[in-house]
Design a protein that fits this description.
single chain; 307 residues; alpha+beta; D-amino Acid Aminotransferase, Chain A, domain 1; D-amino Acid Aminotransferase, Chain A, domain 2; 8-stranded antiparallel beta sheet; 25% helix; globular; binds 4'-deoxy-4'-aminopyridoxal-5'-phosphate
């Protein structure tokens, strides 16, 4: 992986090599940290880099820190300002991925959330294609359950909960699948290891509600808004495991995976076995919207370089 040149660390921007923590750091030992993942897309004709919905991402990030009893003394706007300062130094002219991290920073033993110093770091790295050049992927249903709101809230992007995601992802990958969907404690489908999902059933674009132990994805929200603008009917409701065996179309959504078609679930072909019309329409509109090429959704794009 290409390493960044700089990091925001302990209140200022420093060379990335200086952004280091000790092995006793609370967040590293106990998973008491929250993170975000934001993309910025390079628009070649405009010679501009556009952040995708950074205020929405930072609002969720701060909500995650609130769940962990953290107080960073930041607002979504101040986090965006730091990000723009960092990117002004990095001078990327390509698609990138930004990783803010809030962590319990004391180098101390003792599992708790209160009375521990919080720190913030932000770095930006070149982004990668999550599933390479695959047209569509094969998912399984994981034998691992998704973390429950009363265990580690999936609503927060909490570092410790990603041990659950890592168990889900590696079991699927080592068994030859690209990804896995998980069931929540009720036995309904919730999401993938690090992405939300949508299915089309009887022409209706359907995704689990935010009360089914999902991360409230910014891409998920964007897909719902794009669908509305395309006149595609949408529904948020609990989804049974076998509905994804018999649905017409299925896709994943997330900052990293963008809109990725799923063509097989546990060796059953999804729909006709090729990318369906609703997935295609959403994927195309999303790909334009993130690069600031959809006038209707320009409010989603924040330019990095002054003009
Ligand atoms: N669920 C999980 C568990 C995730 O880690 C992510 C990635 N942030 C998502 C869903 C998708 O969220 P977003 O669209 O905001 O990236």
């Amino acid at each position: 992986m290409d390493l960044p040149k700089y990091a925001f660390f302990q209140g200022k921007i420093v060379p990335y090599s200086e952004a280091k923590v000790g092995v006793l750091t609370h967040g590293l030992n106990y998973g008491t940290a929250a993170f975000g993942g934001i993309r910025a897309y390079w628009n070649e004709p405009e010679q501009q880099l556009y952040l995708f919905r950074p205020i929405e991402h930072y609002t969720r990030f701060l909500n995650s820190t609130k769940i962990l009893l953290m107080n960073l003394g930041q607002s979504p706007e101040s986090l965006l300002k730091i990000t723009l300062e960092l990117l002004a130094l990095e001078q990327y002219r390509r698609d990138i991925y930004i990783r803010p991290l809030a962590y319990k920073a004391d180098e101390s033993i003792g599992v708790k959330l209160h009375g521990i110093k919080d720190e913030l770091s932000i770095v930006a790295i070149p982004s990668i294609k999550y599933f390479g050049d695959k047209e569509g992927i094969h998912v399984t249903i994981s034998s691992w359950r998704r973390v429950d709101d009363n265990v580690i809230p999936a609503r927060g992007k909490i570092a410790g909960a990603y041990a659950n995601s890592a168990l889900i992802k590696s079991d699927a990958a080592l068994a030859g699948y690209d990804e896995a969907l998980t069931l929540n404690q009720d036995g309904h489908l919730s999401e993938g290891s690090a992405m939300n999902f949508f299915m089309v059933r009887n022409g209706v674009l359907t995704t689990p509600p935010v009360t089914d132990n999902i991360l409230e994805g910014i891409t998920r929200r964007s897909v719902l808004e794009l669908a509305a603008s395309l006149g595609i009917p949408v529904q948020e409701r609990p989804i049974d495991r076998t509905e994804v065996f018999v649905c017409e179309e299925l896709f994943l959504s997330g900052t990293a995976v963008e809109v990725t078609p799923v063509l097989q679930v546990d060796h059953r072909t999804v729909g006709e076995g090729k990318v369906g019309p609703i997935t295609t329409a959403i994927r195309q509109k999303f790909a334009k919207a993130v690069r600031a090429e959809e006038p209707e959704f320009r409010a989603w794009n924040v330019p990095v370089y002054p003009r």
